[in-house]
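seq:
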Amino acid sequence: MSRRTFSIAALTVSLTLSGAYEPYATRLNVNEKVEPRIINGEVVTIEQYPYLVAVQIWGSFQCGGSIISRRVVLTAAHCLEREKQPRKYSIIYGETDIQGATSNVIQVESFKMHPDYSNINMDYDVGLLFLVESIPFGKSAQCIKLAVNRPWVGSRASMVGWGETQASDRGRLHAVYVYTIMQLRCWLLYKNKWRITPRMLCAGVPQGGKDACQGDSGGPLVVGDEQVGICSNGFGCGLRKYPGVYSNVAVLRDWIQSHVNTSCSDTKAVSDSKGRTKLTLFGSMNRRES
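struct:
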């Protein structure tokens, strides 16, 4: 079974289940360099999407992520498989163009991947980056609220990332807009590929032409002012019948909150009952073990 992790590309959600499958795509090897790519997106600025950050490994762009508190970034677990040393990671915040960015860079102090994450079917694809210092909030850097409930079917959602619509656009920020689809429908579309679980949700456009693909994994899928998904996986990029698959934030919210309060305020480190460092806003919290 193979698949690709995401950047922003092209997608068609078929209105029927008939017809042959498109040729399969190879899932990105986590040891390979990720090349960002966006097709059919529109150019936007970070001020329009100030919760977005770029996640780097060894100073090179790897994935997207979202600011959920001043010192915590939410991303996909598979973005954290490539390197086990936290200090090899950094984030760029508040920048529309990340090519050669040297300002607004913060190192990562530690990270967590969901303990049930599977790189076989990309279930529980969620991770947290804990930063060495706080992100200074302003018009180009803000946190995003996390959804409590799954979005209504047909909700218009934005997906934003760095990539290219043509060669000259590499490193610029682009957005595409997709619509959430019924869970059962997504399960049927993918039933011969891999299992769509309750920790996943799907989004695309009926007429095709917009999706997320290799390179922008970990970025936020947003409906209104809430993050409903984390860019995770999909079969190929822009193929017929296969919508984008996102980690379902509402379902994974308890695990996220067990490690960090998601209110938009300063965080400080405390120790849990097992002596590990945690980030919290209030000095103590009820921890839910996964």
